[in-house]
Every structure is written in C-alpha cells, then in structure tokens.
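thread from #wetlab-drylab

HS: before we spend reagent money on co-crystallization trials with cobalt (II) ion, can we at least see a predicted complex? here's what I'd submit
DV: go for it
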Amino acid sequence: MIVCRSASELRRLREANQLVGRVLDVVREAVAPGITTAELDALAEREIRAGGAEPAFKGYKGYPATICASVNEQVVHGIPSPKTVLKEGDIISIDLGALLDGFYGDSAVTVGVGTISPKAAELLRVTEESLWKGIDAVRPGARVSDIGHAVQVHVELFGFSVVREFVGHGIGSELHEEPQIPNYGDPGRGPRLAEGMVLAIEPMVNAGAAGVKVLQDGWTAVTSDRSLSAHFEHTVAVTSDGVEVLSRPTAKEPTDEGTSIGQAHLR
Ligand code: MF3
Ligand code: CO
C-alpha cells in the first residue's frame, strides 16, 4: 500500500526534508582537499541534532554512520572513515537522512573536490539533470515507471549507464516505504501516483558499465569496472497539480520589503 499523507503529515515531512537540505548544504560547503569523510560525518550529525532531529541511517540495519560518503567509483553506501582523505579531483556523493518529529527526510548530492576532470563534471551534470527529469514526471495520474523511464532516457543519451541494483522509494514515517522506484524501465507501468504520496527519487549513474558489487564491509557499493559513479536524491510530494520538492531548501522569507519566492518551488 502506498500512503497518501494528510496536510499536517506533509508539513512534518517538509520540516524534516528542509532540515536535510540545509544540512546537506553545510556539509557540501565543507568538502575540500584534505578533509576526511569522518569529519564530514561528524559535521552532519552535529547539524542534524542541532536541528532537533536524529540521523536516519545510523543504526539502520546496522549502518554505522550519519551520512553515506561514496567517493569516485563508490556508487552508494560508502562508510565515512578517518582514513578516507579527500583530494583534488575526487567526486563524492553525500547521502543524508534525518528523522524529525516522526517523519523522515532523505536527500543526496554528488560534488567535486576542487577541480575535477571534464568527464567527471559531465557525469555530475547529467546525473543531476536525470533526477530533475524524473521529478518532472511526477504528477497525479502518472505511473511510477514514468519516473525511471525519464531518468534512463536522459542518462543513456550521454552514454552513461543507470544502476539497477538500488532504487528510490516511498518515504514517510519509515525511511523506506512503498513503492520502489527503479531508475530505468518502460513508461506506463506500476502504480498510479496520487496527491499526498511522498517519494525519494535517487538516480545512481555510472560513467562506464551499469554493474555494481558490494565490498567486504557489507555496505560499500562500487562499480564493477571501477568507473566513476554519481548519485543525486530528492524527496518529493505529489501535489494536486504536480510536484513539490520537499528536500530543496527554500529561500528565507525576506525580513524587509521585497517579494518572496520562498514557497514558489520554481525550477
Ligand atoms: N538514501 C539511501 C536509501 O534510501 C540511504 C540509505 S543508507 C542506510 O537507501 F544506511 F540507511 F541504508
Ligand atoms: Co533514499
């Protein structure tokens, strides 16, 4: 069953996801050559708790950290470590979840460390664009597979490949709810979207072949061919006429005169 959330539940999901979006901004700003992924993890945990929330991933099926920090050929679920020192030219996916007042937020970005190669920059651009193609497919009456289809078409246009082993998901009072949201497939399949559904859409895109494997630690997924991989994620709500991106930080209300675009959800 896919839950449709009430207005008050959506308010709480918005709060949780806005916190996640703001913390993700803080953590991405801290990315620089010489910092360790353990330091990024500590920063994220501090900011989440300062916001009155709890890390959502820590303890989830035994996952040991607040963020997933997946560097270069790591696809998702990289475990932060004091031994992982970021260096110029790396790319790092930072995936962050928080539990606030009974509801979950979940979002991820991939960023470059200093100057990155043109190929890496293209991979980041295309992966982020593919997330927005997926988000643009969300509206009442659309089908779940319309999302993945839009992602896949965009990714393959540029010769990159979509990871099959991990999927997006419904999200709410649990981190992972129905439906599963693959990032590939034919359009027009699967459940119909309806107002109040809340979805975490998260394309994972490899520069080389689509295959992935999980390392000995039981978590870190890497590309089988060790090519670079990128990952972007937003939590979105189906609205009466389209979609609201809950995890994208909105501009602060202006304190003096001026027009607020804070709740306009422009894109
Ligand atoms: N965004 C990822 C997901 O929804 C992160 C989960 S990490 C885990 O699956 F540790 F919590 F599994
Ligand atoms: Co997720």
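DV: Confidence is low (pLDDT under 50) at residues 257-267.
HS: ok that's useful, forwarding to the group
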